[in-house]
Amino acid sequence: MILVINIHQLWWMQDVVISQSPPSRIKSISYHDPMKRIQLLCDGCVRPITSGPIYVCAIEEEEEEHCNFVLHEWCSRLPAELIDHPAHQHHTLILCSKALGEFFGVFDCDICSLPCNGFVYCCTECVDFIIDVECAFLPKEITHTSHPNHLLSRVYQTRYLCRICEYSESGNYFSFSCHTCNDFHLHAKCALLIPETTVHKCDKHPMKPSYFPIENHMSDYFCEVCERELNPERPSYHCRDCMQSMHTTCAMSILQYETYDRYTRGVYQFVNVKFGGTYNNIEVHPHPLSFVQGIEDDGQCAKKGCHDRYQLHNLQFRMIFKCSDCKFAVHYECCKRMSS
To answer: What is the DSSP string of 193-261?
Structure first.
């Protein structure tokens, strides 16, 4: 059971203001449960809601415009301002419920570079600086199984090689780095978002990250995907039942192929996106369009001269807008261009 508090009217008058009026109604709700295919994501941090208390929109289900707005209790208490944030120390960052000026509220975070449509911290002086809630509160120090003997500290630096994905970022990014071992760095997104298990079509068991030489490994180290030799001192995914291994980059490539994403972020491409909602624009399509992640049956983008950056035109696994009344469906980027 949860408290339903009428917050939406106040929400649009002033960001991050929650009504303290008495609850208007009590009702039950199904929490996030992947096994039952129930998804309940917070509109603030875009993370699963698995227990209460939470805030939801007070608009009733039987009303024509039902709203699925929902918040963790702690996301309702986020600070309205961040002063001296390590990624933007000279200006104050302001909390907003949506990224202003971004189509359908979707923006690319300036720290992790991932798309997001949750709450944002933005700079009122630098129009182009905007970060998601998760990146706004990255921990100063973490422990990681890839480097268990030392703490890893949050560092803002210009260029480094990540020990997990083996990619080097150019530009100003956070890393988690070891001050004892000067050459050990992890991307923040790799340290915090890389899956704990992955699968391969030739192995029925889940493969887990291994960061050290495998005990009782009787043969040479070779990747089951690219068939090249593995460095036992570098991270890899490994199945202890079948004694099979693969590079972390090859594991990412499998997921990237499945998601049509050529970059390492394909592993966790939409972890910060809450799908749902309706877009109405008669110049784009006469029927309402739903914001969803594409499936195989959605086929190819309906826009002539599709602007898909990978020239694949497929909609599967991508951010798309689709019509439930007909077969019309387009990429998010194509719909954005059609609306401008």
So the answer is: HS-S-EEETTEEEEEEEE-SPPTT--S--BBTTT-PBP-TTS-EEEETTTTEEEEHHHHHHHHHHHHT-
Distance CA 278, CA 270 (A): 18
- H or E stretch covering 95: strand 93-96
Q: Is the peptide bond before 48 cis (omega within 30 degrees of 0)?
A: no
* CA distance linking residue 5 with residue 320, whole number of Å: 32
Residue 11 confidence (pLDDT): 35
Give residue-wise pLDDT tens across range 45-86.
Answer: 998 887 778 888 766 554 545 677 888 888 988 999 999 888
73 or 279, higher pLDDT? 279
Exposure letters 176-187 (e unless 16+ CB within 10 A, then b): bbbeeeeebbbb
Q: Please give the average per-residue pLDDT across 302-306, as a whole number.
A: 85
- Which stretches within the chain are classed as H helix? 8-13, 133-136, 188-193, 248-259, 332-339
The identity of residue 57, as a single letter, is C
- Residue 21 pLDDT level (bands cut at 50, 70, 90): very low
Overall size of the chain counted in residues: 340
* Helix, strand or coil, per DSSP, at residue 332: helix
**In terms of C-beta density within 10 A (0-12 exposed, 13-18 middle, 19 or more buried), how is residue 28 classed?**
exposed
